[in-house]
Amino acid sequence: MITLTIDGRAITVQPGTTVLEAALAHGIDIPRLCYHPDLKPSGGCRLCSVEVKGRPNVLASCGLACEPGLEVTTHSEQLTALRRDLLDLFLSDHPLRCVTCDKAGACDLQKYAYQFGLSESTFPGPVSRTLYQDDNPFFIRDHQYCILCGKCARVCDEIVGVNAIEYVGRGFESHIATPFDGPMINSSCVFCGNCVQLCPTAALLPVSRLRQGREWELRRVRTVCGYCGVGCKLEYALKGGKILYAQGYPGAPVNGEFLCTKGRFGWDFATHSDRLTTPLVRRDYAAAHGLAGPEAGAVGDFVPVSWEAALDLVADRLAGTVQAAGPDAVAGLASARCTNEENYLFQKFMRATLGTNNVDHCARLCHASSVTGLGIAFGSGAMTNPIQDIRHADCIFITGSNTAESHPVISYEVIRAARAGANLLIIDPRRIPLTDHATLWLQPKPGADQYVFMAMAHVIINEGLADKAFIEARTEGYADFAQSVAALTPEVAALQSGVKAEDIVRAARMYALGQRAYGRSIYDGRGHSTLLYAMGITQRRNGTELVLTLANLALLTGQVGKPSTGINPLRGQSNVQGACDVGALPNVLPGYQPVTDDARRKAVAEKWGVADLPARPGLTVTEMMPAILDGRVHALYVMGENPMLSDPNLEHVEAALKALDFLVVQDIFLSETAQRAHVVLPAAAWLEKDGTKTNTERRVQLIHPVLSAPGEAKPDWWIVQEIARRVEARLAEGRKARDESPSASARRPWSFTSTAQIADELADVTPSYRGIRHHRLTEAGLFWPCPAEDHPGTPILHREKFTRGLGRFSAVQAQGPVEPPDAEYPFILSTGRVLYQYHTGTMTRRSGPLAWRTPHGWAELNRKDAERIGVADGGEVIIRSRRGAVRTEARLGERVPPGVVFLAFHWSEAPANRLTQDAALDPVAKIPEFKVSAVQVEAVNGKG
Amino acid sequence: MQPSDLQTITHKEQAARAKYRARLLCCGSTACLSSGAAEVRDSLNRTVKLHQLGGEVQVMTSGCLGPCSRGPLVRLQEPGQPDVTYEAVNADLARRIIEEQLIPDLGEPAEPETGPHDLPHLRASLRKARAPRDLQDHMLPADNPFFARQMKVVLALEGQIDPERIEDYIAHGGYGALARVLAMMTPEQVIDEITRSGLRGRGGAGFPTGVKWKSVRGAPGDRKYVIANGDEGDPGAYMDRTVMEDLAHQVLEGMAIAAYAVGAQSGYVYVRGEYPLAVKRLEKAIRAAYRQGLLGENIFGAGFSFDVDIRIGAGAFVCGEETALMASVEGRRGMPRMRPPYPAQSGLWGQPTLINNVETFANIAPILNRGADWYAGIGTEKSKGTKIFALAGKLNNTGLIEVPMGITLREIVYDIGGGIPGGKAFKAAQTGGPSGGCIPAEHLDTPVDYESLKTLGAIMGSGGLIIIDEDSSMPDVARFFMEFCADESCGKCAPCRVGTTQMHRLLQKVLAGHGTPADLTKLERLGQHVKQASLCGLGQSAPNPVLSTLRYFRHEYETLVAGQTQAEGKA
Question: Are residues A423 and A549 in the same domain?
Fold first, then answer.
């Protein structure tokens, strides 16, 4: 610790603290315009200059390190005169239009002008910049207000890592610009808007807020973003019930102040005219059930009906199916976008009311193999470490995750670490954006990465880089595992994967030892390596074994159970972690308690007030479709999912949905799946709901309603409860009619009046959530496992011991893809996501700015292949697999290697999943191999 | 290469040289080339060929010969004779120098006998007497004060060697210092020698070189860098250009010794993009040094390896500032950052980095060749050695000069510079370019050293020296430099970006006769604040020309302002 004197006060701080930080931490305010705690000090505004005893010149306190005995004066007559002159200079180059300025009230320059009593500049003359750029629907750039603090360019460089903007020009003409001052869209800009966030003046403003209201008129509501699983917190500024803009806020627990483009700009879908506002019944179905609704308000083939009528119809049909064909004739899809409470109620309804375990959700299609694989290896299938741990890692190993596009805010942590000297190791067949920051990028052939991972293990063992003490004390099964990689030399892996053997050796050393590129580790001993992965690993026919292969590497090197280490599956949807945790899976009850475990099942049954619960695991998403076609499932209840785009082999899905006797879908839009429903129920969107969600790092956070739901749309928990209440009544009646013994007396009634009540029952039933009581949830949320009310939560898993006791090595055999390319289908199709779209695009394609940036889909093709096929950049191609064909635009480049085509699955007009296969599933996780399918690619209309 | 190979090359070169009875050096620096030196050289070569003198007269491109404004320059060297420099030579004069001075058969009277008492300058005057009248007018004898009052330490080899031939440099002792250092000295001993020599940074600030080297050596880091700053940008200054063009090997040798001393493995020479000839010669020199094994792996078999590459600036004045320069080397926009950390701790790519001016590096080999004590014997108590200046402005002799520290301004102006043309009165000397200040006539006897100039509100700077005569308006001089700084501000910090522009606007207002006394006060206050608060040296020194002219020539400002006050009174 260091002690110095600031304004006569003795202040003690950590070494490395700047004088500005020390002063601010001790309540001494120093004026500043270019400082931001997350950015490197720039020293551009000079307002924070202070006097230091013994130094002839004033010094910028933002860049001045605290030293023992330093005597600092932050306020003096001389400093005030200097700051006044500096502000005078700023004002001389900044039009004073505060009366009409959108930033007034939130402008830092205005704040200081007020503080120093400067109503105008004493320097006459024109301002330097007049450029006004409104070349995109995200934000405008009004250069006359720019004070060149450079925070925008620095956040773009240091946090986002895309360097879309920089200072250009010199002297008074300097300004912040894209390369050659071109439109934003021609730059590397990712429209995250973090520049807008940090802009102290009106130089950067969201388009949505222009001339819509003064800052002091706005109401602000904070909630958790409803897109990906990162769980960023953000603040919406509203006027008259309308969102004007969204922004991050300092100190948000996951994301600090930073957001991505979807979070910041993708909220306008909520008020899109396509929103469902009344319950709908398919016209023919309504007629058949005597529900001739009015034509006014009809949507396509659907007519509006009252909630009462719709809920009764759904209850009749679901109860009728159970009574006619048994509980397992009904299946339900819960939703990774709904809250914990809603998913909890949904699976409870399926299990306790209907009596079936046929409940699953789209986690099946993303991280089912993480849940199974990490369950086997460690005992819990979730990220082992918190997101902000990445920042301090010495080596970051990313594989099968396009982090910058799918989890942008996590990529910011990666960029920060890399900029501080961490090694970034990427193993990915595709040249994803983060490879620009990688120390080492290995590019295996799609489907051949497992050879590389196993050869890394081989090298680690052979070179003595393993953590023997850790293996000895904390693991089991090492010998068999070591045997399994003994023959997998880097040379063998090189042959299989196309990666150079020496690169595999380098990668192995880098990861095992946690080597840095430069700079000093904050950790003692062996450097800390963290491993991030996503669907490139899990969406494979042997996804579970691939996850085990990665877990083996962590166990081998002891890179787990410590800060900035671990195996971290990045979850895709805002509450996919929570939906799994609360039991929206066919084989487990809330808290991953197996349905086959009699004692645990009975305990849950007791809490729910039922005699027992079904003991046989139900159907997975991927098993439901064949079961429908087999006639085993007659009715399907879908809550906020869109299998008509997200599931593999869409022809097959469509046939299945058509074959259903009854399909009820509750959603916010008439999705591709809802269009095939008999009854559609209008749900509230995440911006309109309260409850809790669990992000990818296992942090349970509160969400708050920002808007009111449109029309008659209702929160999903309300809908589920209304259906459950009605179904229960009908089933009870049936039982009574059949004179069966009623067990309903003990049942808890379906009478929740708030999500808080549901959350508390959820905590009762779910061991890992037991301590996560609704009233305990504050800003930071709580990490599960949190087994008791006085437990602080568990940010890092497996610290002293693994959830299952010892970490378990698994001996696996490397496997290639199930459908390798051949003469007829010579290309490998890989699927995934793009930055501006989310999942099946129901929300993002209805967001003005996001849809503008990516209005339609495209396929990525290597230039060499394109030349051979005869397609130009922007030309059309038809991609065919054994299951179907899509037609889309070709974009050429080097992002995919020759022989590979990449297609995102967002686009209903060119649905990637028409091509993917559903035949070979991972035997444990039942996840399909989305990542590798064999296809043909053909140019439409030849060249041009 | 082994140290003994230097000897072999030297002998070979000397043997080759010995067969010539005369040597004609044709200046190949930028100034002379731009006034037609290439044609002069062609003419010299043609004439030699015509008279079949190829075996006895050598024509050679040389480095800068000094009085640049009088180019193209040709120097005639004959063994045992003082050198004679010809100014303003054209193709015809070049022919006549050979025909009339080097071919006795062409009717010149035989040289009178001279005894052992003969003095070189007497010989020169005899030669002058011998030459036809108009050739005489082009002669600058070696005893011309322009040459005689200089002291060549850094530039000693400038008129001696072909800048594009490494062998010539080696034959004049080149790379001998490196060889000795690697064979006989520890890095600490090298640093000690440099420290004892008293050498200070020639980029302008005058930081003790040995201290800087020591801190880079002591900084923890497994990779270290050496950078030669050749981003000279002051208007009218071209010391560094000349050093790089003429003595590229001397710079490289200095860098290699520095790298050995601080523990660096690689280095960069950062050259401004406007110096194509310097770039070309440096490239050639680096290639030659690699070929000879004087750069690269295991130099002189001593286990020391050093790589050098060139980085070319893109025309930003601020890139001469060390942190901006390093940003530029890293491929980023050349903008300064706050110090500390200093480059010695965290420089290029965060690694300890030694950054010195090219002239500083060019001092290293001479110091190690002749010893720290010899070097410390030159100059004043705190400013040792010599300094190169680019002499410009209202002087009879302008050009590149090297003088011992402590020489007075008066000697530079009136002896070396030959006084003010047209008998006008000296008004001020502007040192240090846009970062410097103006020194008035009453301080003409001030010794030129770091401290004395600073006391006067000027700076040593990198070596620009502009002489201003009575005809010039000092506020206008200040305005010129202010405009330069306002244009060259990188835009990062507010006092420099906006402050210099507002100062320039105030000066324009004053010069246009619209100023008030309050404007002068404002100018002074703003100047102080820009100086105090700016992020880097550019902004911190940008107000100097204004502040120093306000200090010494305030009456000129007041006159301009008074006109306005009177006009207001009349209105």
Answer: yes
